[in-house]
Each structure stands twice: as C-alpha cells, then as structure tokens.
C-alpha cells in the first residue's frame, strides 16, 4: 500500500510539474510574461523585423571593398546576438541589414552602433587631452588641430582596414583580475604598429571612432607581433563595448544610414498559423504512436515529451534565441532524438522482460544498457552543434543554438524525467508485464550477404543526383536551383496609395502573373509600402512588372525603386559553413574513435554520413527545389540525424563483440546487431517522419520546400543505419583490426 501511495504521489507531482511548465510556456511569469511562447524572438521569416539600408560614403567603392565590408558587418551583427539577420548588397554601394524580431528602427540602429571610421592616432605633439571632469570622474578629449591637419601630419598610424579582430577578455596576476581588450592586427597593421609603438613608448595612442576619442591607452613597450592588450581598469561591460566599437569601426568602408523601416514576416500570418497547426498535428501523432506501441512506457514518454516541449519554449524565451525555419530544423531533430532515446530505452526494457527478468529489474537494466547509445549519440551531435556555433555564422549559428539546447533538454527528459515517471507508474501498481508491451523480435537476416545490392542501390541514387546536377548545369547554367539567398536577384521597394493595403499573397500573385516568377515579399509596417525580391530580372521583365503594378495597384513609376541585390549567403558565409562542418566531422570522428576504440567505427560513421548527405543533395538536384538559407539547415539536420542513427547500431555491435561466442563470425555480429536495432530505426524514423510530413501536408510552399528534403533525409538515414553502416564497419575493420575485441 505504501508503495502505491508513493507512486500515486509521484504521478501527481509529475502532473503538477507538467501543468506548471505548460502554464509558464503559454502564459509566462510576471508582467513581462517571462518564459511564454508569445515572447520568443521570431526571425524575419516568421515575424518580420527592422530593415536598415546603409550606403558607402566613399564614391565608387570596389567590389572587393563592398564584399569585405559585408562580411565584417555580418560578423558585427552576429556579435550583437542577431545570428538570424539577413545581410546583402543592394546595387553597387549599398548594404541592407534585416534584423529579425525588432519593432523599433531607432533602437535597433543604436544597438548596432554607428558605422563610422576608426583610426589609431599618435598623441604626442598633435593631440592633447583636456577637459578632465573631476566631478564625474570621466575624461573628455578635444582636438587642438583640425582633423584634416592631423591626417596631413601623418599622425594616423592605423585605420579600420588594419584591424583583424578585437575581443573582450581578462587576465589574472598576483591574485588580481583585470578586464582587457585583446587586439589582433593584419600583416599591414602589424608593420605600422610595430614602428609606431617602438618610437613612442610611454606615450598615448588615441583610438578615434567617428571623430571621437573612445580610449587613449599608453604604450608600455614596443609591440611587434601584431597583437596588443588594452587595459584601463575597465568593467567587463566597458571592455566589451570598446572591443565592439573597434570591430564596428574596422569596416573597410565607412557607411551612413540611408533608410530604415519596420517590415512584416516574409511567410505571412497565414503561413505561420498553418505551420503551427502542422507542428501540433505531428506532435499529436507522435504521442498516439508511442502510447499504442509501447503502452505504459509510451504514456510516460508522452508526458516527458510534453515537459520537454514546454521547457524548450521557456528556454527559447529566457535565452532570447531568435527562432526561424533553420532553428525549427534543430528543434525537429532534437525532438526526434528525444523520442529516439525513449525508443532505445523501451526496447531494452522489453528485451529484458522477454528473457524472463522481472519488470522492476527490466526497467533498471533497460535504462542502464540504453545509456551508452543515448550518451554517445547525443554527445556526438552536441560536439557538432558546438563547433557549428563557434565557426559558423548566420543560419548555421541559429541552427546550432536550437540543436544544442534541444539535445541537452532531450537527454534530461529521457534519462531522468521518463525514468521518474515510469518508476512512479510501477510503484502505483502498474507492475504487470502486459503494461509494458511485448518485445518485437527482429528476425536475424543475412544483411551482410546483400551488401553488394545495398551498395548498388546507393550508387544508383547518388549517380542520379550527379546526372541531375549535370542536367541542371546544361539547362539553366546551375547544378542546383539556387534561390535568392545564394545568388541574389532584384529587389523593388513599392509605395502604395493611402487606403490601399495589398497583402503578401496579392503581391506574390502579381509577380507570378506578370513575369512568371516567384517572389519573397515584406510589408513595411510603418509605411504603406512593400519590398519585393525575386530572381535577377532583365530590363524587359522589370518594365513588365512595373507596368503591371501601376495598372493594378494604383502606384506611379516614381513610387517604384528597383535595385540588384546580392545573396544573403555570402561567399565567406559558405566558407564558414563548409569549414564548420569539416571541423565538426573531424571532431565527431575523433570522439567515435576514442569511445569505440577502433578507427573502423569512426571511418564508417563518416562515410555513412557522407552517403546520406549525397543522396539528399540528389533530391535537391533532381526535384530542383530552391536552394536557400534553409538548405544549409536541412543538410546539417541530416548530418545530426545520420550520426545519431549510426551510433545506435555501433553501440550494439560494441556490446555484442564483448559477449561474442567463439562460433560467431564478425558477419554474424553485424547481422545480429542490425536485427536488434531494426525496430528502433523504423520507429524513430517514423515518429520524426510524422513531424516533417505534417509540415509537408499542411505547410505553405516555402515550408514544404524545407520539409521535403528533410523527409528524404529521414528515409535515407533509416536505410543507411540498417543497410550501410554495419557493412561498412565489417569491411573497414579488416584495415583497422587493432581494437578491444581482438
């Protein structure tokens, strides 16, 4: 009886915690509704934001100067926490910055900082420091010569083009910690700085930003290595502000604000509603499946998953993470991993019950034996997420942030919350074997025997992708159907007459009907206007579209401004993404190598990962789905999904190697391991498939273009984990035999 009371108490506690988590995620806490879903910062695609256009002060800047400025501005915006911002060139001398979630253009401009010039100026003889205010304790500086005279005198030793980076930091000496700014110069800056600091030891060098001295450190010694530390009894915030100011001023070109507007979501309110509805349908289907397939454990998993979703919402709000479609991909993957962890645990519990263990013992052993697969799978993916966040930018950072958060929460809910609930059910009297379902014995088939067939299937699919790329190159000049995010296009700003309020759907239809092109539309919230972006238009197409808007929307030609724009995914961002993925892959390989004590495991995992990526790439090539920002997120999702599925199979191989019978060959081990994980691979793929399929069925076109390749990746991940990974290991272990089972 005591056990039942205790169990019922735990169940009540679980329901109270669930209710509290859901209440906070829906309603929040306090006047500001902290933790609520309404307070989540949404990206431009989901909620709009502020659009700011800067123009280069310099006349006729070179293409290289504009691209360098664009890239450094991208880094500046990333540093401000706006990892999901869109930044692209407009015309030949303008840069557009779209900040998601913002509603106040002036406040956003202030937060980003001015885009002025940065100089390091000698203090001796030319600039003297005056106006010391003893009341406030602040030092103000005034120039005794005109800025033109200072330049002519040659007392400017560095400018923004000489700065590589500046970061806030700290050092500790003799028990005292001081905040500093670490400065790194490029090669040209190193030479200039070495000469100046050698000649002016003991003198001040003023850091001048936008005509104002922001700091005047004293040269302590010659600095010849291109690195320096700026100190001055800074607080952490002051050091961060100075570092940020130097980075802002380090832009190759001085920029001035041309215009700023508040814009609406690119997907539109209707698209957001349908996406939320689709996500809800997907989650409900997962709940139903888990309850039917795993009975009582499935109900426990559903409760834990509901707590997980609530905690995810709360964390997104409290951590001020901007959520966009790529971020949504990270959440979908982490939900899939949360379900996967439960499937692994429940399969283990059913196996233990199937060999005659008691229910209580089976629960304990199920969690214990499932831990290594869950831990290695999640940690491997978490390593990738951390590397992607550190080295990536823009979309990659946003994806990595939500993925890392999701992994941490999913491990917590699967290993602790689900366990707590399941034990509560047992203590409450649900302790019969029938409550835990029956183990589905995977028939041990000779998968190894059909290895050549699987390799042939994979080869054909990859070859189809190559043919699709070649055909695309021949027909359109591009191997993939690159969208606006990658190749840029034409942007037009249209101001409509008072009293007319065209919708996103109206304007998308107008572009499609007039010139047969798809378009991305932003409504300007603080003016009766809109920005319309489409692929690069020829002069004739521009004229046709202009005429159509004039005739059907009552605008005049003077109220339509057209500019060519670059892609929001710059060449540097692509390089960052490729580098991040490459480093993440190497880190995952090293981790798997160390954990499984054999390079064959690591090498086959990476090959399987590459296999899945190539097949999803084939889907893009053949279907000609638009390749945009979400393409990067989709491919990263496939990487995470693939490596997690592979780890589960390898965990069983590792376990079976330890328990290997003398008569068992390595091929037998592989066949048995695949059979043991077969149902897990199918069920996990099925539950994740539910989530993505709902987006395909109920989502709008842009959502569907994002979800369809994900569906292909899920199917491919299940196929490779069953038919490819184990067989790869079997082949590679012959080349890397030095492992623990020898």
Structure in words:
This protein is of the alpha+beta class and 742 residues long. It folds into five domains: 2-14 and 21-27 and 267-428, Multidrug efflux transporter AcrB transmembrane domain (Multidrug efflux transporter AcrB transmembrane fold), CATH 1.20.1640; 44-115, Alpha-Beta Plaits (2-Layer Sandwich), CATH 3.30.70.3400; 118-250, Gyrase A, domain 2 (2-Layer Sandwich), CATH 3.30.1360; 449-468 and 570-678 and 695-732, Multidrug efflux transporter AcrB transmembrane domain (Multidrug efflux transporter AcrB transmembrane fold), CATH 1.20.1640.10; 489-565, 2-Layer Sandwich (Alpha-Beta Plaits). 59% of the residues lie in helices and 14% in strands. The chain has 21 helices and 17 strands. The chain has a four-stranded antiparallel beta sheet. It has a four-stranded antiparallel beta sheet with strand order 7-4-10-11, with helices on one face. Strand 5 (132-133) and strand 6 form a beta hairpin. Helix 9 (325-354) runs parallel beside helix 11 (395-427) and helix 10 (359-391) runs antiparallel to helix 16. It is globular, with a radius of gyration of 30 Å.
């Amino acid at each position: 009886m005591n056990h039942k009371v205790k169990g019922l108490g735990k169940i009540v506690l679980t329901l109270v915690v669930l209710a509290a988590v859901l209440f906070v995620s829906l309603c929040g806490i306090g006047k500001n509704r902290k933790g609520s879903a309404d307070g989540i910062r949404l990206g431009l695609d989901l909620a709009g934001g502020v659009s700011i256009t800067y123009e280069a002060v310099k006349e006729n800047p070179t293409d290289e100067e504009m691209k360098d400025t664009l890239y450094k501005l991208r880094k500046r915006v990333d540093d401000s926490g706006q990892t999901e911002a869109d930044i692209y060139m407009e015309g030949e001398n303008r840069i557009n910055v779209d900040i998601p979630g913002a509603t106040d253009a002036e406040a956003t401009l202030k937060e980003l900082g001015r885009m002025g010039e940065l100089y390091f100026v000698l203090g001796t003889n030319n600039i003297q420091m005056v106006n010391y205010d003893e009341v406030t304790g602040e030092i103000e500086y005034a120039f005794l010569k005109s800025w033109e005279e200072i330049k002519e005198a040659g007392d400017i030793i560095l400018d923004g083009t000489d700065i590589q980076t500046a970061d806030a930091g700290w050092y500790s000496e003799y028990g005292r910690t001081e905040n500093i700014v670490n400065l790194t110069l490029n090669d040209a800056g190193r030479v200039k700085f070495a000469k100046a600091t050698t000649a002016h030891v003991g003198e001040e060098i003023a850091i001048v930003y936008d005509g104002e001295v922001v700091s005047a450190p004293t040269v302590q010694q010659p600095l010849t290595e291109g690195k320096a530390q700026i100190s001055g009894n800074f607080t952490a915030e002051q050091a961060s502000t100075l570092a940020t100011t130097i980075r802002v001023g380090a832009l190759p070109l001085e920029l001035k604000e041309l215009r700023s507007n508040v814009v609406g979501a690119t997907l539109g309110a209707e698209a957001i509603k349908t996406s939320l509805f689709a996500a809800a349908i997907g989650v409900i289907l997962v709940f139903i499946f888990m309850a039917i397939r795993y009975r009582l454990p499935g109900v426990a998993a559903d409760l834990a998953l509901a707590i997980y979703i609530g905690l995810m919402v709360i964390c997104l709000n409290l951590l001020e993470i901007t959520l966009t479609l790529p971020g949504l991909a990270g959440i979908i993957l982490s939900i899939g991993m949360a379900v996967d962890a439960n499937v692994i645990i429940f399969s283990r519990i059913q196996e233990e019950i199937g060999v005659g263990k008691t229910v209580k013992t089976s629960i304990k052993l199920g969690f214990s034996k499932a831990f290594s697969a869950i831990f290695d799978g999640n940690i491997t993916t978490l390593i990738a997420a951390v590397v992607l966040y550190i080295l990536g930018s823009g979309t990659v950072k946003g994806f990595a942030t939500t993925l890392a958060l999701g992994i941490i929460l999913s491990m917590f809910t699967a290993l602790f919350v689900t366990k707590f609930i399941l034990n509560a059910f047992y203590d409450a009297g649900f302790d019969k074997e029938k409550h835990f379902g029956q183990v589905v014995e995977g028939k041990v088939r000779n998968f190894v025997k059909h290895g050549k067939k699987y390799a042939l299937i994979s080869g054909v699919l990859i070859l189809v992708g190559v043919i699709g790329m070649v055909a695309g190159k021949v027909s359109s000049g591009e191997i993939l159907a690159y969208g606006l995010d990658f190749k840029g296009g034409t942007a037009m700003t249209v101001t409509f007459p008072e009293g007319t309020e065209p919708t996103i759907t109206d304007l998308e239809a107008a572009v499609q009907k007039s010139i047969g092109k798809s378009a991305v539309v932003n409504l300007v919230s603080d003016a009766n206007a809109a920005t319309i972006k489409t692929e690069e238009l020829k002069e004739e197409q521009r004229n046709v579209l202009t005429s159509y808007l004039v005739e059907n929307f009552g605008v005049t030609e003077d109220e339509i401004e057209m500019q060519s724009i670059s892609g929001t995914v710059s060449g540097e961002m692509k390089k960052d993404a490729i580098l991040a993925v490459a480093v993440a892959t190497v880190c995952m390989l090293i981790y798997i190598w160390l954990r499984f004590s054999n390079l064959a495991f690591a090498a086959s995992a990476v090959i399987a990962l590459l296999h899945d990526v190539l097949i999803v790439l084939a889907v893009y090539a053949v279907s000609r789905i638009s390749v945009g920002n979400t393409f990067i997120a989709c491919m990263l999702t496939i990487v995470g999904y693939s490596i997690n599925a592979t780890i589960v199979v390898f965990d069983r191989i590792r376990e079976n190697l330890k328990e290997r019978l003398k008569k068992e060959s390595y091929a037998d081990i592989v066949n048995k391991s695949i059979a043991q994980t077969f149902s897990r691979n199918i069920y996990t793929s099925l539950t994740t498939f539910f989530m993505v399929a709902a987006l395909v069925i109920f989502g709008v076109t842009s959502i569907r273009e994002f979800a369809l390749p994900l569906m292909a990746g899920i199917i491919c991940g299940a196929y490779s984990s069953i038919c490819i990974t184990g067989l790869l290991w079997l082949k590679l272990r012959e080349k890397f035999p030095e492992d623990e089972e020898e």
